[in-house]
Amino acid sequence: MLLLDGKKTAQQIKEEIQEAVRLRKAKGLRIPHLAAVLVGNDGASLTYVGSKVRSCERIGIHSTLIQLEENITEEALLAQIESLNANPDIDGYIVQLPLPKHIDEQRVLLAVAPEKDVDGFHPLNFGRMALELEAFIPATPFGIIELLKRYQIPTSGKHCVVIGRSHIVGRPISILMSQKGPAGNATVTLAHSRTENLKALTLQADIIVSALGIPEFLKADMVKDGVIVIDVGITRVPDAAATKGYVIKGDVAYEEVAAKAQAITPVPGGVGPMTIAMLLENTLLACQRKDALAN
Ligand code: GUN
Question: What's the whole-model pTM score?
Answer without folding.
Answer: 0.97
